[in-house]
């Protein structure tokens, strides 16, 4: 029996889809059976990030409405046999699916897969409720900005209310140079404020843009820093104890100084 | 100004610290904001329960959630019209 992990954020554009594609591909590259579930109905994206947009025949709504069998709608990845995508419907809206259907679908998928990764739409409405309906665990993605962290806080509250306790945090698009000059909140700042465990930190990285252009997740590029960060997160999900990468622990000179002087940072 | 106070001054003006402080304040507020509907439901339930024991002015009843920097209090103002001598039980 596999595990259903929802990737959520509250705020849009912080990197949920990028994260789902990369963690999923990384897990598959480590021989796990993985299915990616795009629940952003009406704003389908995961297919393009994965480079699978030309293979879509059926979608999530076709499955929940019984227009096709689940197996028919699953698209097999180009690179890994045991990696599949269930695309979102593009022409319907979020009310086309309900939480009960999503729960059943997740139950069904986790019988065949080690990991079911659910890419959540932005917001806290029906789409969010659908995405978390069948989840066993949650990853919350944020960027080092006030608005994104604020929304992450809201989402963490909603996840706890929905009995999905102890979600883990992914901080995306961190810029070590700006953290160093004190112009970007650092990791400890965000962990402190949100009072949540860290799953990993992903740097701002051009290779994400390039890999998205090509439809090849950055984890496949051995030279990509973001790809490396996502591989580490995937290993942590598999239960390995992987230390943070250097940019994941960057501190300002001042906070080092404060520590030296015995101040609490 | 000695080195340490210079550093302290620099620290306070770093934009990340401005962000942190603004975020802290906004979250204090967010975390104590519950929906008006929830508060209204709570008020109705309160009125129901208290009415078992005394006659109250439900129209004048007010339920509010007040927060200051580090605490939150639920306060209810419930005008009593008449207290029954014997409770119904
Ligand atoms: N670490 C990163 N470095 C650079 N660009 C990124 C990074 N993460 C995400 N992006 C870009 O940000 C945009 C939004 O990402 P996306 O994954 O679609 O967010 P969401 O699914 O949360 O709306 C995309 O154009 C993506 O390529
Ligand atoms: Mg998305």
Features:
heterodimer, A: 265 residues, alpha/beta, 8-stranded mixed β-sheet, 12 helices, 41% helix, 16% strand, globular, B: 89 residues, alpha+beta, 2 domains, two-stranded antiparallel ribbon, two-stranded antiparallel sheet, 3 helices, 4 strands, 21% strand, binds adenosine-5'-diphosphate, binds magnesium ion
Report on the architecture of this protein.
The complex is a heterodimer of chains A (265) and B (89). Chain A contains twelve helices and eight strands. By secondary structure, chain A is α/β, with parallel strands linked by helices. By secondary structure, chain B is an alpha+beta fold. Chain B folds into two domains: 1-33; 34-89. Chain B has helices spanning 3-13, 15-32, 36-51, and strands at residues 54-56, 62-67, 72-77, 80-83. The mean pLDDT of chain B is 82. The A-B interface holds A 145-146, 149-150, 153-154, 157, 179, 181-186, 189, 193, 252, 254, 257 and B 7, 10-11, 14-17, 19-20, 22-24, 26-27, 30-31. The complex binds adenosine-5'-diphosphate (ADP) and magnesium ion. The site of adenosine-5'-diphosphate has 18 residues of chain A, from α1, β7 and α10.
């Amino acid at each position: 029996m596999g595990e259903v992990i929802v990737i959520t954020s509250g705020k849009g554009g912080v990197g949920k889809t990028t994260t789902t594609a990369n963690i999923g591909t990384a897990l598959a590259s480590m021989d796990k059976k993985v299915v990616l579930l795009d629940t952003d109905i009406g704003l389908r994206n995961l297919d393009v990030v994965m480079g699978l947009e030309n293979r879509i025949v059926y979608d999530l709504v076709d499955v929940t409405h019984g227009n096709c069998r689940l197996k028919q709608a699953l698209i097999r990845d180009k690179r890994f046999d045991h990696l599949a995508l269930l695309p979102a419907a593009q022409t319907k809206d979020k009310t086309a699916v309900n939480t009960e259907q999503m729960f059943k679908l997740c139950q069904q998928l986790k019988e065949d897969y080690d990991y079911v990764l659910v890419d959540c739409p932005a917001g806290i409405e029906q789409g969010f409720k659908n995405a978390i309906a069948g989840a066993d665990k949650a990853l919350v993605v944020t960027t080092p900005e006030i608005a994104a962290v604020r929304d992450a806080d809201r989402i963490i509250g909603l996840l706890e209310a929905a009995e999905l306790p102890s979600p883990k945090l992914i901080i995306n698009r961190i810029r070590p140079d700006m953290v160093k000059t004190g112009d970007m909140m650092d990791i400890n700042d965000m962990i402190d404020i949100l009072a949540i465990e860290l799953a990993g930190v992903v740097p701002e990285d051009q290779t994400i843009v390039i890999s998205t252009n090509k439809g090849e997740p950055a984890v496949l590029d051995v030279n990509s820093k973001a790809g490396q960060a996502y591989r580490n997160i995937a290993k942590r999900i598999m239960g390995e104890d992987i230390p943070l990468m250097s940019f994941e622990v960057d501190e300002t000179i001042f906070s080092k100084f404060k520590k030296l002087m015995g101040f609490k940072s | 100004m000695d080195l340490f106070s210079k550093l302290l001054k620099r620290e306070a003006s770093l934009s990340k610290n401005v962000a942190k402080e603004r975020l802290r304040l906004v979250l204090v507020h967010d975390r104590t904001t519950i929906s008006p509907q929830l508060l209204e439901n709570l008020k109705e339930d309160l009125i129901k329960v208290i009415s078992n024991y005394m006659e109250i002015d439900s129209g004048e009843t007010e339920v509010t959630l007040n927060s200051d920097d580090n605490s939150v209090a639920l306060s209810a103002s419930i005008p009593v019209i008449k207290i029954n001598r014997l409770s119904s039980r």
